[in-house]
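Predict structure. Chain length: 345.
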Amino acid sequence: MTRRILLAALALAPLTILVHYVASPGDTWEFVLAAVALVPLAWLIGEATEHAAEHTGPGVGGFLNATFGNAPELIIALIAVNEGLTEVVRGSLVGSVVGNLLLVLGFSLLFGGKGAVDRGSSFVSLGLVGFALALFLIPAVPGWSGDPERDSLAGLSTPVSVALLAIYVLVTWRNLRRHRAAHDGADPDIESWSFRAALLALGAATVLTAFVAEILVGSLETFAEKAHLSHFFVAAVIVAIVGNAAEHGGAVVVAARGKIALAAEIALASSAQVAVFLIPAVALLAWLIDPLALSFRPVEIGVLGTATVFTAIVLRDGRSSRLRGVALLAAYAAAAVAFGIAGDR
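Prediction complete.
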């Protein structure tokens, strides 16, 4: 049923593009429509990536998963860089990590109930997030005074990004293999697509995502003003959730089926992937457009650090429960409030 709904919802992407260029309903409605349209596109990219990976070795499969699995967030971030919305870029990326740690994992434990999670794998992912956070301090702390967009901070962000990508290559390949294998086992009755069909679907979904993401970013400022929300809050909460919506839903569905360990793996591996792959990739690719400094604000560093530590405490014994899920969701609500209070820089 869920797959049928998502397949039908794919029509929202061309509809959004058509409405943007023909009807011009206003930025507020365009933002909402684009945000909803990105959800089935993100799902299709994930599906096509998994099916394409079945025809390749684990190394290529992991590369496809990392590159295209984060395509919606990457495209949104690069378009925002091009528009000069650097606070939106940083906010959405940090919000994505926090959302995976607290929101997705929280709902997974809530729907999954009692069970066991892979403690070793969980702490590898949390360790990667913690390591990334420590490196983020290098360009972030100097940015707490003076111009946070100055070239020297963008320069500091480059070696940090290179180091994180090196760590990603060395450590996460095993998690990517497990992630792919887990998806293969989650839907055993679904026939594999041909490699050509998977690549065509992947290409089409990525192109549509680029158009829809451009509409989303272009209407973000007006939507934020009309909704009386800061640009930072919209980026850190709404855009971050939208960019990960399909994978978020997938983790919760898997948890509801009783595969709690798999759901936790998806949530935690995704948070680590954003921290050590997507954020540095955006920072390096931004040099082709406009240098991006990873000058995260104190609220971003504080919330990310607190979320990492709190998640580690919740999973310290490798057990899950609905109460722990509620605790994580409450922590996410507190994080969202903190983002809201912080406002724009």
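Summary: The two ends are 43 Å apart (CA to CA).
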